[in-house]
Write a structure and sequence with these properties.
- By secondary structure, the chain is of the alpha/beta class.
- The chain has 11 helices and 8 strands.
- Strands 1-2-4-3-5-6-7-8 form an 8-stranded mixed sheet, with helices on both faces.
Amino acid sequence: MSTQAPVIRYQHVDVDGVRMFYREAGDPAAPVMLLLHGFPSSSHMYRDLIPLLANRYRVIAPDLPGFGFTEVPAERDYHYSFDNLAVTVGHFVDALELSRYALYVFDYGAPVGLRLAVAHPQRVSALVSQNGNAYLEGLGDAWAPIRQYWAEPTQANREVIRHAVISLEGTRYQYLHGVSQPELVAPESYMLDVLLMQRPGNDEIQLDLFLDYRNNLTLYPTLQAFFKASQVPTLVIWGQNDPFFIPPGAHAYAGDNANAVVELLDTGHFALETHAAHIAQRIHAVLGHAID
């Protein structure tokens, strides 16, 4: 394995009426790893992991519509739902001609990426779920105000989510809660997220996605059926102090997939901020034989 630091390329591709931004590194002929980020982040969350994987894999990390540096023209009149995010990422995958890949999913990236897996199971060589939930038992108490918003999508409940989650305080909380060494978390991580969310109209996009997230719960049985049928080699590596996606959601993977390795880390939601090197090592150790 080469010790030379891989070159990361920052690129755009036009798909589905959207200008998708993505980070790419590694040999174009190498096996592909597709990294899908979550709320409120972007492919920036993978900045430390990508170099640790790119000497062995072709690593590709896009920004979802509404996040990061992906651009959605106003005239596109994009409807922000998880179904549509998955459709757009599907176009992205096709545009890059990715016929086989390992999936790394986190937070919002799980319902997006797992929709792709259900649609094209033959494409998925392996799965990494890092706080990427697919089970009802994985939803923690921190979802209470969001569940209230689902039950009663009033303007008042929408404002509760706006102030509790789409704010600097709420974003910092997601990065630092449950982290035993907060000095390891780079402040530009959550500051960049907040700045990008403050673009005109973006708060409404995020609130629409929070409301639509309830539809992911009805999809869970379909995702679980995929795990059972495919028995895809899987690493479930989870920040155990995450208040949103709690450890029972990690353990549940093993109930459906005998090939799932479950590991809990002493950190929070954004486990890569503190454990990128360890997670990379575990990907190589657990899934290296499967990623082709």
